[in-house]
Write a structure and sequence with these properties.
This protein has about 350 residues and is mainly β. The protein has one domain: YVTN repeat-like/Quinoprotein amine dehydrogenase (Methylamine Dehydrogenase, Chain H), CATH 2.130.10.10. About 10% of the residues lie in helices and about 45% in strands. The protein contains three helices and 28 strands. The strands form seven sheets. Strands 1-28-27-26 form a four-stranded antiparallel β-sheet, with no helix packed on it. The longest helix is centred in the N-terminal third of the chain and has 23 residues.
Length: about 350
């Protein structure tokens, strides 16, 4: 290669063999002699063993990591957190709001209030998509087809579509009573009315009185049964089709209760214990340390039951828990009422005048 020429390929570069020159110069330097002539040292046995252990350990960790990877199709449990809050219309109240969940959100009214509104969970933020003026409301219940409204003058209203509730029947004045409302088996169930301790009303207005039923403190329902919890912890299981009591159990003090497809969840022992009661009356203690308050509230999403006190929501299943814990902050009242929908857990704080949604994210 001549001076000034550009190298086109590495093959064109003529590199001289310098080995002889290095050996010649090594004879003039003790250091170079040592470097050139020193025989290559074999690795010690200890070093070889250590290196082998490192290789084996690395291989083992790789196998373990591979073994613990989620299998294809594995569903990773989502993290539940506060998804949003929205202010309630109307003036604040000392009473807890009435809640009626459906698949698209939550209906809310103040006890004996004349405003009814629906909070929707669709979209990036909560929003009020319906707001109605009604007669003073004493109880609410909803499913995907109906919103049932019980007014202080004893009228049962059904809001299915449009903006005007339809009167289904009259049960007598409820202005001075504490009425309860639940949906079970396609009927609406009313506790504490002048027509009887518990009555079932069909969408066509026909009324069936449940014989022998005590006045309930809590009334809750599923697709097959209505469950009544009376004073002193008397639990009555009511067949939704026949409106008759199938059996009654005495459980002692019950703080709150909510039905799920397989039975009834109960907070007992001053709110410290969570139990599940199946349709045959078999009891199972699921948790024994709920309690930061004696007025625990329960709501069921079907697979999970949620408990709420003034600060924390916790989710349990039949195997125990908690499966999820969400700190929601101190409410303005002791314990907010909660309600469950497919999209999450709703709560309403009366004095704080807000509705909150806790949902997986």
């Amino acid at each position: 290669m001549k001076p000034g020429e550009r190298l086109g390929r590495l093959d064109d570069l003529d590199v001289p063999d310098l080995r002889g020159e290095i050996q010649r110069r090594a004879g003039e330097s003790d250091v170079l002699v040592e470097l050139v002539d020193r025989p290559r040292r074999r690795p010690s046995l200890a070093w070889t063993a250590a290196a082998g252990l490192i290789v084996i350990a690395a291989f083992g960790l790789g196998v373990l990591a591979a073994d613990h990877r989620p299998a294809p199709g594995t569903v990773i449990a989502p993290t539940w957190a506060i998804r949003g809050r929205i202010a309630m219309p109307g003036p604040p109240s000392l009473r807890q709001p009435l809640l009626a969940p459906n698949s698209s959100g939550l209906w809310v009214a103040q006890p004996h209030g004349t405003e009814l509104f629906h909070v929707a969970a669709t979209g990036p933020a909560l929003r009020i998509d319906r707001h109605l003026a009604v007669a003073p409301v004493v109880a609410l219940a909803a499913d995907d087809q109906h919103l049932w409204i019980l007014t202080a003058d004893g009228n049962l209203l059904d809001l299915t579509s449009g903006s005007t509730p339809v009167r289904v029947g009259s049960l007598g004045s409820l202005a001075s009573t504490r009425a309860t409302l639940a949906v079970a088996g396609g009927r609406v169930w009313i506790g504490g009315s002048p027509r009887g301790p518990i009555v079932a009303v069909d969408p066509d207005g026909s009324i069936a009185v449940v014989p022998g039923a005590p006045t309930p403190q809590t009334l809750t329902g599923s697709s097959r049964a209505a469950w009544s919890v009376g004073a002193g912890g008397t639990v009555s299981v009511i067949d939704a089709a026949s409106a008759t009591i199938s059996h009654t159990l005495q459980l002692g003090a019950v703080v709150d209760a909510v039905a799920d497809p397989s039975g009834l969840w109960l907070a007992t022992q001053q709110g410290q214990t969570l139990e599940h009661l199946d349709g045959a009356g078999s009891r199972k203690v699921v948790a024994t340390d709920l309690g930061r308050a004696s007025s625990i509230r329960l709501a069921s999403t079907g697979r999970l039951v949620w408990s709420a006190d003034a600060q924390v929501f916790q989710a349990f299943d039949l195997l125990g828990g908690p499966r999820h814990t969400v700190v929601v902050g101190r409410a303005s009242v002791a314990v907010p009422d909660i309600a469950a929908t497919p999209g999450g857990i709703w709560s309403a704080d009366a004095l704080g005048h807000t509705v909150t949604l806790v949902a997986p994210g």
